[in-house]
Amino acid sequence: MALLDSKIFHLPRKWMNEKAPPDRPYKPTTVEHAANVITNGIWIPFSIWGSFSLLHRSTNWPQLLVAVVYGVSIISIFTLSTVFHYTLFCRREGPIKEALHRCDRAMIYIFIAASYFPWLTLTRVPSEGLVAEMWWLIWVFASLGIIYQQIYHERFKWLETIFYLTIGVAPGLAFLSIDIPSIFKIQVGGALYILGVFFFKMDGRIPFAHAIWHFLGAIAACIHLLTVLETLYVEDPSVTEGLLKFEP
Ligand SMILES: [Zn+2]
């Protein structure tokens, strides 16, 4: 734990502020604030393009449902986070900042569920067992996470991180029993999220830690979105023969 309790880099104030006490949020420097805005903002156009591609390639109702749920979630997470970090950059305090902070955190739970949603909805998951139930269970987990987070907002930060990790990883374990051709890319995205969580906890110890968390999370989200597009929204049905529950 010594690594977590000490400052890893010793740099001028411009690049990183002191680590926050346990009951207070870290105060990023101006350049860190700017990096936090940019590292989410640049992905908004990509998420819009990806969502419209999903809609455009939908040939049945389940695909359309996934396109809407997944598309809205990915656009929302980048947009909400960008707006929230912009309010921090502008040093705005008050109820709007507080509400945006809560929404930003809640959106992570929704986005985790939404990231599993295409695979659970469109592929031939087993009709019995844990994977079969995951389609609705993942939203229950996300809802419980949001309720917890709204009640104990910023109070038990490590516990909240453990919840994010559990909700993010546990449903993925159920997938190991089914044959998904793109599983490696999905796992690479998942590994980037987990690596990102390390930086999420490194405010005040590694400069730009939060921006690095954004960046790794955004790359993971892009890998997942592109994998959904190239695996579940193919124009040639023979590519995914036997994988899709609903024939295109
Ligand atoms: Zn952020």
Automatic annotation (TrEMBL):
One Pfam assignment: HlyIII
Membrane topology value: Multi-pass membrane protein
Keywords from the UniProt entry: Membrane, Transmembrane, Transmembrane helix
Transmembrane domains' residue ranges: 34-52, 64-86, 106-122, 134-151, 158-176, 182-200, 212-234
Major localization class: membrane
InterPro entries: AdipoR/HlyIII-related
Example of a GO cellular component annotation carried by this entry: membrane
Subcellular location: Membrane
Similarity comment text for this entry: Belongs to the ADIPOR family.
PANTHER family: ADIPOR/PROGESTIN RECEPTOR-RELATED, LD03007P
Name of this chain's protein: Monocyte to macrophage differentiation factor 2
Organism: Cloeon dipterum
